[in-house]
Structures are given as structure tokens and as C-alpha cells.
Amino acid sequence: MTDDKANVQQRIDQYLDAIDRVLTGEGLSRTERRHVTDDVENQVRDMLAQRAGDTATVADIEAVMAELDEPEAYSQGDKAPEEPPAFVGDVSSWDRRLDDGSLSVMLAMLGLAVLIIGFIFRANTSIAVFVIEVAALVLGVMARSTKWGRLGIARSSLMLIVLVLATS
Amino acid sequence: MRSWIAQLRKGVVELCVLAALRQGEAYGYQLLQRLGAIDGLAVSESSVYPILARLTKEGLVKVRAAASPNGPPRRYYRLTAMGRSRLREMQHHFNDLQQGVNQLFDGDNK
Questions:
Q1: For residue A19, what is the nearest residue in chain B, using CA coordinates?
Q2: A24 touching chain B per CB within 8 A
Q3: Residue A24: how many CA atoms within 13 Å on its side-chain side?
Q4: Minimal CA–CA distance to B62: which of B77, B50, B81, B48?
């Protein structure tokens, strides 16, 4: 009985270790890997308890394992695709740019460009830059759940601070 | 064909996970069962658990650990405000895609 328990635990550990190795290869952090393997172990334990209660044998764990994905299945990867800012493209993509926050980043950069042009030609562009940066900030807040939206907030806030300091 | 089906499903798993969590918090295996109970939405643990780990890292879901009768503490996942917002965005894009594809199919049938 004790042997069975130890063998069951050993089989589970082998399976979890194999998953951990695959996830390491996929570039997941230690914390993410632990989260995944904890979830898997919970599932294994639940399935084992449903099947055999407290008296699971090696045959039971093998039967449970047969229902689970191979460790290699974790290598299919779950990497969030990078979303580049849409600086070029057709006019019909404006809605998407608004949603993903890239419009906010574009406006924040436009404000910087206007400021630099004003500086070169010694023209007072502070009001135009202020309006552009406030618009960028508002769009950034609207898309704050996206990374480009948050970048837009950061850039436009920085520009507004620079503008206020420069004009005061 | 199997590869195409796998790619298609992979693309919507994250949406399905977030949508399933809108029904209330759940631990990993419970979430799998919740999805598996819906025709056509059965997904494997190797797809769902890494997504849950990533969604946690991105702040879209929050985790609460509670004692489990069988193993390590269970990790209960629930949507954060950011997660609900992401779900709405994804749902919007998914509906657009679905309508576009349906429009193509309707055109074929005419």
C-alpha cells in the first residue's frame, strides 16, 4: 500500500517535471511554470480521487495519465503576439488604431514633432502641442487596457509636463 | 484539415477562457469542465493552463488560493476589471470576424 502511494507520487512527479522542462523551453518564467504544474497536479489528483478514492494504484495513475495531454503538447506555445503600432496603413484601420491605443501613441509623437518644428523655426506651437497631447492622453485613457494605450498615456503625460515646465 | 482546426481553436481559446470566467470564478480543472460541457468547446489542459498563467501575469485574471482535499492548494481564477474590458474588446472583434465570414458564406449561397 505504501509502495503504491510512493509509486503514484513518483509517476505524478515525473509527469510534472516533464511538463516543467517543456515550459522552460517555451520561455515561461518559474512562477508561470509553477502555476501551470500546480493546476495540472490538481487535475491529476481530482481525476485520481474520482477514479480510486484514497487507494490509488499505479494502474490507476497510468489510466489517468492516458487521459491527459503528453508533456510535449505544452510546447505548442502560448506566447502573446506582439502588436506593433500601426503607423502606416489604410484609412479604414483608424477604428482599430483607436481600440488598440496606437492612435494615442501616434498623436503623442505628433505633438513632439510639432514642438521640435516650432523650436527649429522659432514659432510658438505650445497651444497646438497642448491640444494634441491632451487628445493623445484622452485616447490613451480610452485604450488603457492595451499596452499601446498605456504607452500613449505615459508619453502624452510626459509631454504635457515638459510643456508646462517650459512655458512657466 | 486537423492542423487548420487546431489553429482555429487555438485562436479562440483565450476568448473562451475569459468568457467562461465571466460566469464566475473557477479553478483550472473546473474551468476545463465548464468549457467541455459546451458542444464544440472541449479544450485540453495543455491549451488552457498556460493561457491562465499568462492571463494572470497580464493582470487580466486574479488568483485566490484555497485548500484542496486532494493535492496542492487550488488556484481559483476570476476576471479583473481589465480582464472584463479585454473580453469586451475581443468579443467585439470576434463578432466582426464572424459577421464577415457569414457574409461570405451567404454570398456563396446566393
A1: B46
A2: no
A3: 7
A4: B77
* ipTM associated with this complex: 0.86
Closest Cα to residue A63, out of A75, A47, A79? A47
Which spans in chain A are helix H? 2-25, 30-52, 58-67, 94-100, 102-120, 126-142, 147-167
From chain A residues 94-123, the ones with a CB under 8 A of any chain B CB are 99
Question: What pLDDT, in 10s, does the model give residues A62-104?
Answer: 999 999 999 999 986 544 444 444 444 444 456 566 667 888 8
Chain B residue closest in CA terms to A143: B85
Q: Is the dihedral of CA B93, B96, B100, B103 positive or negative?
A: positive
Shortest CB distance from A36 goes to which of B53, B71, B92? Answer: B53
CB contact burial B34-46 (16+ within 10 A = b; e otherwise)? bbeeeeeeebbbb
- Please tell me the distance from the alpha carbon of residue B10 to that of residue A23, in angstroms, as a whole number: 17
